[in-house]
Amino acid sequence: MLAILIFATAPVVAIMTFIYLNKKIELEPLPLIFRTFILGMVLVFPLMFIQYAFRTEGVLGSPILESIILAGLLEEFFKWFVFIFVVYKHGAFDHHYDGIIYGVAISLGFATVENIIYLFANGIEYAWGRAIFPVSSHALFGLIMGYYIGKAKFKDTNQRWCLFLALFVPVGLHSVFDVILSSGMKQWIYIMIPFMILLWLIGIRKLRIANRHQHFHMKSS
Residues of the signal sequence (predicted)? Predict the structure, then answer.
């Protein structure tokens, strides 16, 4: 049991630490990060119930539709909702890069519980694959969401458009990720690896842009 908890949480701690320490100016308050992380964890249970109900009743009737609606849209919408109503107007959210930190915290909270449940059900031998694919993908979806929410808060124009992108870019990417996993293709790994590389490239670029924006903000304030 202890080994599963360690393997399930180790990649979460590694990714969160990297995102947190990558900020070039003042670090964010840990209590708010922890709070958003916990909210992400709590989200798992109602969403699992909704997903179970839909799948049991066969409402959507297609693995592709389930990937898009039950995984991509449902999960990312509730993460976005929590971010907007808990973090967006908080005083600690005072730089563009902060959006990335809180977006990743919410997503990794969700990924932590999901990962623990999966490893308890299927075995510790899946830990490395889970770390490389589902856990890191959740973090990257949260990173992209937080990037656009940060842009919405600290950019004078196109605020609504940025909030739209903050929701639907992660929804689209998450849907593609789940469609690949649920496709049943024997060679799915050869599609997933390039997709994950692309996600990481996008994520790293967003980190650099957000850090540049906060430097500009400090100089101009």
Answer: none
The residues near 140 (Cβ < 8 Å, ≥ 6 apart) are 173, 199, 200, 202, 203
Count of CB atoms within 10 A of residue 217's CB?
Answer: 15
The rounded average pLDDT for each run of 10 residues, N- to C-terminus, in the chain (221 residues) is: 89 95 82 95 95 89 91 97 94 92 97 95 92 95 97 84 96 96 83 96 95 59 43
Phi-psi region of 23 (alpha: psi -120 to 50; beta: other; left: phi over 0): beta
* pTM for this model (two decimals): 0.93
Residue 155's CB is within 10 A of a number of other CB atoms, namely 14
Q: 61's torsion region: left (phi>0), alpha (psi -120 to 50) or beta?
A: left
Buried b (16+ CB within 10 A) or exposed e, 105-138: bbbbbbbbbbbbebbeeeeeeebeebbebbbbbb
